[in-house]
Amino acid sequence: MKYVSTRNSNIKYSFEEIFFKGLADDGGLFIPENFYKLSKDEILKFSKLSFQEISEFIFSKYTGETFKKDELNQIINNAYKNFRCQKIVDVKKYKNINLVQLFHGPTLAFKDIAMQVLGQMYNNLLIKNKKKINIITATSGDTGAAAINAFKDNEKINIFVLHPNNKISDVQRKLMTTTASKNVFNIAINGNFDDCQNLVKEMFVDSIFSKKINMSGVNSINWARIVAQTTYYFFVYAHFAKSNNDLIFSVPTGNFGDIYAGYVAKKMGLPIKKLVIATNKNNILERCINSGEYKPQKVNESLSPSMDIQVSSNFERVLYDYFKKDENKIKTIMNDLKFKGLFNIEKNILNKIKEDFDATCCDDSETCKIIRDFYDYNQIIVDPHTATALKISNYQDYKNKQIFVLETAHHCKFPIAIKKSLNKEIDFPNFLNINNSEEKFEVIENDIHSIKNYILSKI
């Protein structure tokens, strides 16, 4: 399995190379030359496999010779040994809605499912290569905590996490900033998530700086994150779907990584009929799917802060596929985005996208109503991101259809949203241990030179 950049297919990379690089030097995202195609028999056999066994099988198709069979087995099993659910992922059915619980990891969010695997992979490769790296990542809320939990106390890794100052929930912030490990550095940027993400990208494409600090990244731009997330799409189909039914997944969507993993699963052979992009009022993807115009606007703070994003990085990967791997087309539209502030998708391509994707959005009042209605009917509290993905159950096209809604985080991480929706105070699980712990983070301006200088002063 070889990999190329979405903006340059002439250079071929191994899995190990793209794993450490994260982002291509040309600013593009890494993608396999071809998706591995599963046969129907291979998919059917998944019904007899555990989540870990399915994950190991899928990763084996994309990691090439990077890991020996016993190494990959150990990586996967170690990654999931501390999950609170033996299945890793569970599904709870409520009429035609199936809630796919992805929050049983150590930081109560779906990001743990991929990040724990990445932590084990980094450890394996750094020991073998006798290297030390600096991981720099941006978070809109959950990625940072998951990454810190996966990499804390590792002597071969420093991790720097950029989050938008005062624009994530208190619980999300505390899960990061109360970690006392010497290798963890939290940076609050005076800006929004897109600013954080742009700073990280700028450091990646600065080849002198990134090589000087031996930089790596674990945002959803890291292909290994995508592979890890495809696992639960296959697991859900194998263990919870009605046989021979085409699947509908509704996915809370910010940076497009989680739903892109569903698209990859479909390309690999999973019978997914529709992937529904669920967004909040920062609905750039919904607007793009409906009009063909991708035009970032001002980021608005919401009750679902992990989706307060206007530049969905992984969308480039799916466009690369729809453009039939035309890297020049990708470079053109990305230049249009950079210099003109928008790009347009021609109608024939947009129609193909609509065959695979649908899109919807919720403002805060709708989100609260969905949380309230779902609680009234089912006595279950969902977090505000999951609530946006429940909206399609009321759409005529999806009534009486089997819908799998990805429940991306535990509701206790968003007490303000739950208070507004249900007038309930939410208790944090005891194991979080964050309320009385000291927070440590630096507030830094949205300035690349200030960020670089801070990082250099810590390594």
Topology:
Layout: E1 3-5, E2 8-13, H1 15-21, E3 30-32, H2 40-45, H3 51-60, H4 69-79, E4 90-94, E5 97-101, H5 111-129, E6 133-138, H6 143-151, E7 157-164, H7 170-177, E8 184-190, H8 193-205, H9 207-212, E9 215-216, H10 223-240, E10 247-252, H11 257-267, E11 272-279, H12 284-291, E12 293-294, H13 315-322, H14 327-340, E13 343-344, H15 347-356, E14 357-361, H16 364-378, H17 384-390, E15 403-407, H18 415-422, E16 442-445, H19 448-458
Parallel strand pairs: 5-15, 6-7, 6-9, 7-8, 8-16, 10-11, 10-15, 11-14
Antiparallel strand pairs: 1-2, 1-3, 4-5, 12-13
Helix pairs in contact: 3-4, 3-10, 4-5, 5-6, 5-10, 6-7, 10-11, 16-17, 16-18
Structural overview:
The protein is α/β, with parallel strands linked by helices and 459 residues long. The chain has a domain at 90-108 and 224-422: Rossmann fold. The protein has helices at 15-21, 40-45, 51-60, 69-79, 111-129, 143-151, 170-177, 193-205, 207-212, 223-240, 257-267, 284-291, 315-322, 327-340, 347-356, 364-378, 384-390, 415-422, 448-458; strands at 3-5, 8-13, 30-32, 90-94, 97-101, 133-138, 157-164, 184-190, 215-216, 247-252, 272-279, 293-294, 343-344, 357-361, 403-407, 442-445. A hairpin with a 2-residue loop joins strand 4 and strand 5. Helix 3 packs across helix 4 (69-79). The radius of gyration is 21 Å and the shape is globular. The mean pLDDT is 94.
